[in-house]
Amino acid sequence: MITIKDKTFVPFIPADAIQDRIQELAKQINQEYADKQPLIVVVLNGAFLFAADLVKHLTIPCEITFIRVASYQATESSGQVKEILGLSESLEGRDLIVVEDIVDTGLTLRQVCAQLREKAPASLSIATLLFKPTALKEALDLRYVGFEIENRFVLGYGLDYDGLGRNTQDVFVLSEE
Ligand code: 5GP
Ligand code: MG
Ligand code: MG
């Protein structure tokens, strides 16, 4: 159990389950991109641990780059997306794998992907550690999903509450008490 500010979080997905699932996702990517050289586009800050662990298990040649967007305030989605920051390389003709921590409403990814597609990549797929299917407002083709979870606020392993709590090995969920 961890307490951050006024909120209590209880264990939800243990570190070993996360690592096992990441190895399965990496295996799938290794197979599906065997003849490609993808550009991994990591959406900061939330996806930093997921991406780091995922790419350690990739055996294909790949490039890794980092972008930043923001759409979330405290525990409620604001639905507002800022511009993509940090993208310096050309995406033309590249096979992109966008790596996210969590897809909630899907608004963030939909806007990010639309902006990336304007730069004429050959392909674009999405890898997200967590997915809240009941909250999905925007149709998205999520090719690699770590865990489908119920519509509750989670924290840890990259995900924050008000900037805190990213630095855990497990994922926690907001206590209902
Ligand atoms: P969406 O645009 O899909 O609604 O939200 C995307 C972003 O909101 C995620 O990348 C993440 O930063 C944040 N987010 C959504 N759900 C959660 C959650 O349960 N916990 C935390 N910590 N962040 C969340
Ligand atoms: Mg994110
Ligand atoms: Mg956040």
UniProtKB/TrEMBL annotation:
This is Hypoxanthine phosphoribosyltransferase. Gene3D superfamilies: 3.40.50.2020. It is found in: Cytoplasm. PANTHER family: HYPOXANTHINE PHOSPHORIBOSYLTRANSFERASE (PTHR43340:SF1), HYPOXANTHINE-GUANINE PHOSPHORIBOSYLTRANSFERASE (PTHR43340). Its EC number is 2.4.2.8. GO terms for molecular function: guanine phosphoribosyltransferase activity; hypoxanthine phosphoribosyltransferase activity; magnesium ion binding; nucleotide binding. It comes from Spirosoma radiotolerans. It catalyses: GMP + diphosphate = guanine + 5-phospho-alpha-D-ribose 1-diphosphate; IMP + diphosphate = hypoxanthine + 5-phospho-alpha-D-ribose 1-diphosphate. GO terms for cellular component: cytosol. Pathway: Purine metabolism; IMP biosynthesis via salvage pathway; IMP from hypoxanthine: step 1/1. Residues 16-161 form the Phosphoribosyltransferase domain. Keywords: Cytoplasm, Glycosyltransferase, Magnesium, Metal-binding, Nucleotide-binding, Purine salvage, Transferase. The keyword Cytoplasm applies.
